[in-house]
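Thread: "does anyone have the structure for this chain?"

Original post by V.I.:
We have the sequence but no experimental structure in hand. Need at least a predicted one for the grant figures.
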Amino acid sequence: MLTLVRHGQSEANARGLMCGRADPPLTETGRRQARALAAGLPRPTRLVTSPLVRARETAALLGAEVPVEVDTRWTEMDYGELDGQPMTALDGDAWHAWRSDPEYVPAGGESLVAVRDRVAAACVDLAAEAAEGEVVVVSHVSPIKAAISWALGVGIEIAWRMFLVDAAVCRIDTSGPVPLLLAVNDAGPLHAGTEHAGRVLPA
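Reply from O.Q.:
Generated one for you, tokens below.
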């Protein structure tokens, strides 16, 4: 099984900021979410994480008995000059360009197509091992959406039709002739008694 875990809440997430390559740590809520994941996830046979602090902290709190491996292909989308900005920093024309063209690149940043390409390669590299064991990847909204598009065999433009909460879990069965998406945005008991705001933009 290939299990994709979004990191726990960071301060930027809590404030509704676009958080790409900015590197804030988890909040206390985010640490509680990671500890809850540790109790609910199967024991991984391999554990991979984005290099960003919020993902590495989440991975460390899972308490796995295998080493935590860092793979830069699972890092969040580069928002360039928009990193750390509120969503109101985008005007209507920029919103339209971003949502209508998956090859759109925000100033100094990265396109959704580029994210999809690097994540698809990472998924292919893990697929055989995930078919035999429990491979857990701790990552971010945009890479997880890219992995889902890979599993479904569709373009990354579907990213705008998905929403992932903090510490959400997605599962992809790679044991068959094609990947099989089993779960998306599975929060389970993680968010009992907590609040989270909806997001339009991958963050």
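V.I.: this helps a lot. The radius of gyration is 16 Å.
O.Q.: and The mean pLDDT is 91.
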